[in-house]
Amino acid sequence: MSSSEVILEEFEVLESIYADELIKLSERDIRIDVEPDSLEEGEESLRLALTVHYTDNYPDVLPELSLDPIEGEADADEINSLLDSAQALGQENIGMAMTFTIVSHLREQLSSLIRTRSERRKKEDILEEEEARTRGTPVTVQAFNEWKVTFEREISLRKMREEEEKFKAMTAKEREEYRRAATRLTGRQLFERDKNLATSDAPLLEEGTVSVDVSLYERATTKEDDEEDRLEFSDSD
Prior knowledge:
Layout: H1 3-17, E1 22-26, E2 29-34, E3 47-53, E4 64-71, H2 76-92, H3 99-135, H4 141-168, H5 172-183, H6 187-193, H7 214-230
Antiparallel strand pairs: 1-2, 2-3, 3-4
Helix pairs in contact: 2-3
């Protein structure tokens, strides 16, 4: 069977299998859209166009293959890796119609590629979350003030609950004493309410009050001390 006859026969088989995916470009060129075998929920879609050019010596030599993304993204390294694996499989099928085998292989490889991408993204997300957790949140004046308001509110509520629990456990007499103590003003509170208390004793000083001359007291004390020094005692005492 000549190469042209082999190619024509293979075209007929491929058209029946890939009715919606295959486009015949010429007598020796076809294009087949290749998709992954299966996609899990949430995985991205990736579709490539496989162009096959059959040479005069096909199937005793490999056809020329090329891949181009038509849906989703694939970088040059990924494309080259897929082509290398397709050509390696073609070498194993030299002398036989190999296009169907190559397309099936590429579908499996696309599924594997997408799973690898998905796993890599999950690991990257985990690393980013861990870095964010260990790095913490930068402290700004606004963030600190917001935290301070929340913290003080929590402390106030906690103290209120503690007071309520303490009050519930009291007897009626203890509750009355507690209420009186709670309403009794401290010295500081009294001063803050009426700062005139500090000078409130001034009006009590009446007019005509005699002031004490301390120097007179000192002179009298000195005189008494001198007289005591001059006292003499008899031998009979």
